[in-house]
Amino acid sequence: MTETIAQETGGLLVFGEHRYFGESFPYDPSVAFDPEHNMYLTVHQAMYDYVELIKFVRQEYSMEDKACIVFGGSYGGMLAGWLRMKFPQTFQGALAASAPILYFEGAPTATMYGFSDITTNDYRA
After folding, report:
1. What is the C-alpha separation between 57 and 35, in angstroms, rounded?
2. pTM
3. Distances (CA, A) of 103 to 56, 82, 109
4. pLDDT higher for 70 or 110?
5. Rg from Cα positions in the chain
6. Model confidence pLDDT, tens digit, residues 28-51
7. What is the pLDDT of residue 1?
8. How many other CB atoms are there within 10 angstroms of residue 68's CB atom?
């Protein structure tokens, strides 16, 4: 899907690595998840990383006037949606697949069984 979209649109496809995963650790991996070190493992920190990454890519490739569309599934989809909502000046669109952005324990915006109810009703219909 991603290669096809990039080819069809003439776009540049960039996969950013989430901090604390892969090789992007702010501390040695053996201690990075210790409580005193994992304070940088937050959604906000990750989103700011992507903002800085896109700023760099736009400058490096002379693409300051090009749109940036973020995409992802599950947690990656939630990040895509949140990036678009929080930084619309940086991310001009988002494709969020299977992204339960409003579903958190105790959240007033989504009931505990909301997703199950919707899928059950879809299959029933």
Report:
1. 32
2. 0.78
3. 32, 13, 7
4. 70
5. 17
6. 989 989 999 888 888 999 999 999
7. 62
8. 23
Kind and range of the H or E run holding 71: strand 69-73
25 burial via Cβ count (<10 Å: 0-12, 13-18, 19+): middle
H or E stretch at 103? none
Q: Which of these, 123, 124, 100, 104, lies nearest to 112 by C-alpha position?
A: 104
- Strand segments (E) across 14-56: none
Q: List C-alpha distances in Å: 96 to 22, 28, 40, 57, 83.
A: 22, 32, 24, 22, 11
What domains lie within the chain, and their CATH numbers? 2-124 (3.40.50.1820)
Q: Is 105's pLDDT higher than 80? A: no
pLDDT for 7: 87
Query: In the beta sheet, which residues pair with residue 69?
Result: 93
User: Hey, CA dihedral for 72, 78, 84, 87, is it positive or negative?
Assistant: negative
Residue 64 is predicted with a pLDDT of 95
